[in-house]
């Protein structure tokens, strides 16, 4: 997975926008205005932050050395994933989708309905 593949995948999900709210160095993906993924644009090491169920977050950190507690995020609910090639791209994309789904599930019912109708 490279940055362009990550970006393409995120933008294909319903209701997703990309923004640079923290300056030109961090690309942020939101679903219906809520953040579900961040990725640095200026880092020599490709990585991303994704929301994760707290129990699964711990399991992934134990299983994969390239999964760390979320950098500058709530470490209980966010992981930083270093994209080094040690984790298959399919697995990485599934974590992105999990993050998206967690955020969608936390949206107000009215907003979830709007998303379904897009």
UniProtKB/TrEMBL annotation:
Keywords: DNA-binding. InterPro entries: YjbR, YjbR-like_sf, YjbR/MT2646/Rv2570-like. Gene3D superfamilies: 3.90.1150.30. Pfam families: YjbR. GO terms for molecular function: DNA binding. The keyword Hydrolase does not apply. SUPFAM superfamilies: YjbR-like. PANTHER family: CYTOPLASMIC PROTEIN, CYTOPLASMIC PROTEIN-RELATED. This is Predicted DNA-binding protein, MmcQ/YjbR family. It comes from Dyadobacter soli. The lineage of its organism: Bacteria, Pseudomonadati, Bacteroidota, Cytophagia, Cytophagales.
